[in-house]
Design a protein that fits this description.
By secondary structure, the chain is an alpha+beta fold. Helix content is 24%, strand content 30%. The mean pLDDT is 90.
Length: 132
Amino acid sequence: MKYMLLLRYGVIEGIPPMSEWAPQDVQAHLGFYQRLNRELAEGGELVGVEALAGPEAVKIVTSDGVNAPVVSDGPFPEAKEFLAGYWMVDLDGEERALEIAARASAAPGPGGAPIRQPVEVRLVMGAPDPEM
């Protein structure tokens, strides 16, 4: 079963934005994710992992399929969080997905304390059958 573990960048109560962290705290945080990624890859569970550009690079496309598409900047300024990255993992079941998400949620923040960042766990559905 494939799962996406979605990591959002946003306000976490009691945690300043990463841009305000001490350099050694940023290094420890990113090193934690690098070790997690390596462990998942070595265990054959990692399908893919990516960090995403910030909201300043987002484009939203809307189309009716007839006229030229409308392309706008996004997300809207009132948004307090955005998708920062994801893991695509191939696992035996949801229990393992929740275990990985819990580890990612406890990544170290300022002073090494776990940041308790919410991680969204989503089962990846198969593509629709083209014969239907």
